[in-house]
């Protein structure tokens, strides 16, 4: 491992991963088609863009500095903006004019001058609760952002009430109670098994806190709630403290270790947490949904045979070829010893999306990204050289997959990013999807368009396209905030 003099010539810095450093605002964007009037709110997006050449050439995309992007809709007009999140790390590196923090989640590789400074890059998910906009990454506490100017307000610990050192970038919101559910892993230090779980009332007050030990120090990227329970998801990508001290990666994936679901009443205690063993070696980054059916709980997730990221290896250094599918795991709370039953309910799946009103409930449809191999686009975008070019809609009847899968695939030359769902005021209408589309316009050059799709008619294509005035790096996750939850300031 040697210090890097320039941006490395790896997938992590090529194509759409090429740094742009753009911070900009633009108003009244060019629109083709008609924007449905009920799309009134703001699509916040997390983008990752490294502000400085990484210290080490083998660093990966997960270390890149977080940017918060907004695409705001008001009376058919569209504005956009993007800003770096001024994390403590960003500010220290901006002052020095170079990277001071080392490899992804390995503080032993940092310049000694930054010891004790918050390492998170806040690059994964924007979310909004109790009037506050946050940018989150699972290795630290979230940063609060001004929802109109995108200026960083600062690291948020609920006025000192959050003792966990980190909180997930996959918050869950109950559609009926308005509660926010969060957890943090490695909650009291590097490679720790400690997990902290918090419930927040609609006004942002912490109403419940539980600490417990996970079976091992796993990469717990996502979790799930049902109407009654919370599910903690443990897959065997495990922190390696000794390896980190030697300058190695934070994570090693163990194909021979079991997965686990920890299930607890939403407002339960650690004594009520039940661990149910699952298959060995599997991994999932993202949950589509979970819900109760009598004493049973169904968990729908994008499940893989191994860790999806090519740079997360087995102890031997092997990286298995990835196979995956939208998969339903079912447990029975009346028979926890019966384990987990598993079945495939859809093709290769990432970036799952559902309507906010369906979280934790039986649901009729969801959407996710996959790859149409007949229209491949080779473009560095995230951890791989192949982009998602296919959006799918899977539907359920009475909670069961009905076999209908709708598809919108494009290419070669186009890439899809995780959409966000915007509900319709008409209960008979399935709402809308807003999806950023990357379009290769020449070798090494990409333009971006925001597509607006009818959520229940994705195969018909976009009803409107918003042409973005500048190109950003890859989007990670997004979040829709309607005007009813935040009345935005008028453009200046
Ligand atoms: Fe994620």
Automatic annotation (TrEMBL):
Its cofactor is Fe(2+). Its EC number is 1.13.11.-. One of its GO terms (biological process) is carotene catabolic process. The keyword Cell inner membrane does not apply. Keywords: Dioxygenase, Iron, Metal-binding, Oxidoreductase. It comes from the Bacteria. It holds the Pfam family RPE65. One of its GO terms (molecular function) is metal ion binding. It is an enzyme of class 1 (oxidoreductase). Binds 1 Fe(2+) ion per subunit. Fe cation binds at residues 170, 221, 286, 477. Belongs to the carotenoid oxygenase family. This is Dioxygenase. It comes from Novosphingobium piscinae.
